[in-house]
Amino acid sequence: MTIFHKYGNIHINADGLSRWALANTPENPAWVPQEEHHIEGICVTDIGTEFFSQVKESYKIDKNCHILSQLLMKDLKDPSLSSKLDEIWKKAYDEGRFHLLDRILYHRTKHTSGHLSEDRTLERVKTCSWWPNWKKDVSEYYQICDRFQKANTATGKKFGMMIQLQEPKSPWEIVHMDWVTALPPGGDRSYNACLVLVDRYSKTPMFLPFHKDDTAMDTAIMIWNKVISHTGLFQNIISDRDPKFTSAI
């Protein structure tokens, strides 16, 4: 495998022809057939405030809705009211499917559908509903929903503070390592990956040919034979969390 350096002003990933946008027609060699989806009709409806007023007034007539409204109020004094609900309503109430927001009763069809993360909830609402300031309303509901907070509490360790990297005092004391993969096969052994090592002190790079499927042991042996035998043992290695770097060989 032969590596050629290109200066920054001529290192362009795509030339002018590859950037030429062609129409997606049968004459284009990269043509992809697309299905046509006909929209039969779109209906936009604005619900007036009188609708919500009628719903709230109807709660006084319907026995189950009236009881649920009392049960879900913050100043509830008599939780035994749930025993007066019809069987289906009581089961849904015990499963936590009812919510009272701005004196309007909301019902959730699935027990887990309303306790996703805030982003996933926004995605679900976006597919079926819209109203003015809907994102703000969903975010505010997420902040006050007790089950939301309990179900989406971060369980991992908190991220630590950023630490300034140590400055080396001699060459090859601290090195950076990273992989370049998805290369076209090259050389007698058809190498298709490259391990790049850069000395933090002198900025000297080294390039080692590899195969994408080489193991952590193959990587360690190659570094020992081709690099450390010339530079000496490194004191620190800076890399990502690639298994070939973090593996306990």
TrEMBL record:
Keywords: RNA-binding. GO terms for cellular component: nucleus. PROSITE patterns: INTEGRASE. GO terms for biological process: DNA integration. Residues 167-249 form the Integrase catalytic domain. GO terms for molecular function: RNA binding. Pfam families: Integrase_H2C2 (PF17921). Signal peptide: none annotated. This is Integrase catalytic domain-containing protein. It comes from Austropuccinia psidii MF-1. The lineage of its organism: Eukaryota, Fungi, Dikarya, Basidiomycota, Pucciniomycotina.
